[in-house]
Amino acid sequence: MSESRGFRGAESWLEQELRSGLRPVTAAPDLWHRIQEGGSRADRTPPVPLSWALLALLAVLAVGGGVWSFQRIAGRAPLDLATLTEAEINGLLEASGELDIRSADFFAIQNWIRQNSQLNLVRGSGEAPGGRVRILGARILRIRGSAVVLLAYLVGGHQNMLLVSGDRRKWDTVSADGHAFSRTSRLISWRMHDQNYAIAAARMQDAQDGCVLCHPSAVAAF
Amino acid sequence: MVLADTQKEVIEGCQQGDPDAQRALFERHKDAVYSIAFRYSGNSSQAQDLAQEAFIKIFAAIGTFRADSSFESWLYRIVVNTCFDHHRKRRRIIPLFDDFLNVLRDPRDSVLDRMIRSEHSSRVQSLIKTLPAEQRMIVVLRYTQGLSYEEIGEILGLPHGTVASRLNRAHKALERRLTRLMGIKGKNV
User: Fold this and answer.
1) Cβ of B122 and A26 within 8 Å?
2) Are A190 and A181 in contact (CB under 8 A)?
3) To the nearest whole number, what is the mean pLDDT of chain B?
4) pLDDT on residue A33
5) pTM confidence score
6) How far is residue A215's CA from residue A129's CA, in Å, rounded to a whole number?
7) Which of A199, A206, A212 minimizes the C-alpha distance to A86?
8) Type and span of the H or E element at A161
9) Between A27, A28, A202, which is nearest B110 by CB?
10) B125 near A23, Cβ under 8 Å?
11) Among candidates B87, B74, B7, B44, which has minimal Cα distance to A34?
12) Inter-chain Cβ pairs, chain A and chain B, closer than 8 A
């Protein structure tokens, strides 16, 4: 390789940011075993006879047709917030985090959501979030073309998230407006102002704590 | 020269199918290969798949490597092409499911723990994902591997000037988005 590696002279703030944010990482310890398994599988693979190739082609066409049909069905089928939120709890923002906006200011996030989606993040009371609440930021997910807002926050140091969606056709879980709640162990969902809401907590015992985002002086009782 | 000689021996060992030489080559380059895959894809499970596939291709093709060129460039070219192939396949096959794949992530660690821990890294990483594939790879090679324009050009088969102009375009896009995200008014922060 050439000696003229990278960064000559003074770096701009952007270059520093990129170099820090994209720094090298360490490979997973099991990578070698995966390569061994993958390599030996490839070594063992015998030449493919024509009849097998034709069968494989037919199978691919059949699977492709199935996937195409599933996509059509999936595009129409309702998917409730509870399902999505459970998936979110089970491991949304991996190492690459992915909040679109990071701010502790609820109103700044509310404005940003208005500007970037058709959704309005409405809180049930006009009270400011209480002292136990620390807002981290928000993200807009695009699921089947519909926007879903995720607000991430901590309550007493524990993790919570609020999800909001507006597309009734695709997300409908409760038919009428108002606080019609449905709960699972770690999830509370309701419909309000023509939008679907759900609060999820990382720990089962924290589910109701999430309500203090909007009701800082009230104890949630359902 | 000791290092260069050792690398030469390792490569020759790999060309003869020596498992110890393959392991030595893997140990020397695993972090670089994985880092490119991870920074390009932004996803650790995809990066594992990409690194695995790249190393299998490297060991399969190492017999074609000629010692008169740079081994690193040859190796990086395989990693880069593996990433591009994967990107093309994903774009072609069922893009609808990408949103769901992005939602259903690795459940080993809790959500916001990781978010807080990797706040800085993730901010840049998420912006990188918005760049076109080739620009993104140029940024990764430049900032993850610290390669020069000439080295990047050799790997991607592009003239030095093209690398510079594409990197410049990526800088402008990232600067705009990062500035907005961080709420920075001026550049000297």
Assistant:
1) no
2) yes
3) 79
4) 87
5) 0.51
6) 8
7) A199
8) strand A158-165
9) A202
10) no
11) B44
12) 194
| Tens digit of each residue's pLDDT (9 = 90 or more) over B2-44 | 445 688 899 999 999 999 999 999 999 999 999 999 999 887 8
Query: Å from B54 to nearest chain A CA?
Result: 9
CB distance A180 to A87 below 8 Å: no
Count, residues in chain B: 189
Q: Tell me how close the Cα of B114 comes to any Cα of chain A, in angstroms.
A: 6
pLDDT per position as a tens digit, B132-188: 999 999 999 999 999 999 999 999 999 999 999 999 999 999 988 877 766 544 443
User: HSE (CB half, 13 Å, CA atoms) of A138?
Assistant: 25
C-beta atoms surrounding A191 within 10 Å: 22
Residues whose CB is less than 8 angstroms from the CB of residue A100 and which lie 6 or more positions away in sequence, other chains included: A112, A116, A137, A138, A139, A140, B126
**A27 → closest Cβ in B31, B42, B120:** B31
Of A42, A87, A159, which is closest to B112 when you measure between CB atoms?
A159
Which of B56, B111, B125 is opposite residue A21, by nearest beta carbon? B125
Dihedral sign, Cα of residue B109, residue B115, residue B117, residue B118: positive
Q: Give yes or no for A42 touching B (CB within 8 A).
A: yes
**Cβ-defined contact of B34 to A26 (cutoff 8 Å):** yes
Determine the 3-state secondary structure of B147 from DSSP: coil
CB contact under 8 Å between A91 and B108, yes or no, is: yes
